[in-house]
Amino acid sequence: MEKSRPYVILSAAISIDGKIATRTGRSNLSSTKDLIRMHNLRKNVDAILVGKNTVNIDNPLLTVRYVKGKNPIRVILDSKGSLSLKSKVILTAKKTPTILVVSESAPRNMERFIVKGVEIIRCGRKKIDIKRLLKILGEKGIKRIVVEGGGITNWYFFKEKLVDEIVITITPYVLGGSDAISLVEGIGFSKISNSFKLKQIKKLQNEIVLRYVS
Ligand SMILES: NC(=O)c1ccc[n+]([C@@H]2O[C@H](COP(=O)([O-])OP(=O)(O)OC[C@H]3O[C@@H](n4cnc5c(N)ncnc54)[C@H](OP(=O)(O)O)[C@@H]3O)[C@@H](O)[C@H]2O)c1
User: Fold this and answer.
1) What's residue 3's pLDDT?
2) N or C: which end of the chain has fewer CB within 10 A?
3) CA-to-CA distance for 190 and 213, rounded, in angstroms?
């Protein structure tokens, strides 16, 4: 692992068949026990990162609520700077630090976000260069980051070999559907080579939490 980049933990709740949402975008798969586990993880990292679609579809707060603890900095990947100003993450940015990551091709004027308290990072020509982004976040003092999806975002992290740890909760649902988002989207690997070591198996009531490291 390069020293200058944060440690990356990829966390998700999946169905038995590996989906992270239904074909209509519903993703509330976790039980309360699992949400507590998730929020315990959030309070122990410096930043939480998600892709734009997750914000648009779930409108999450990305804060620590099920346990007591400090909120991580929220980092949203949105290459075109097109996130709705009505998203909860934007509306609460003065209270909880929020970074919007856009590419060089996004409009120059990001004032509408800045006045809401959002910090802008520009990184990558058309797409966001996440390797460079992690370096920038590391320079800001971010040492540990949890990536909470969705599938497209997860793919970019696996593709660039930037995942140090995976924490997956298998929830007791079967969602099906070729249009339902899987844990990892994108074009995928052509060879079976990207393996992780299984470090922990934990049973919650009706769920299994698996922890792998690279
Ligand atoms: N069960 C779970 O644990 C869980 C967790 C999170 C999300 N979800 C579900 O996942 C679904 C959304 O997932 P998704 O795969 O459609 O999208 P996503 O990963 O949330 O967002 C992807 C978008 O982020 C932007 N982006 C820009 N640069 C990127 C880069 N380098 N890497 C990654 N993303 C970049 C892109 O939009 P631009 O090109 O416009 O910039 C891209 O289309 C929702 O239904 C949500 O409910 C489930």
Assistant:
1) 56
2) N
3) 22
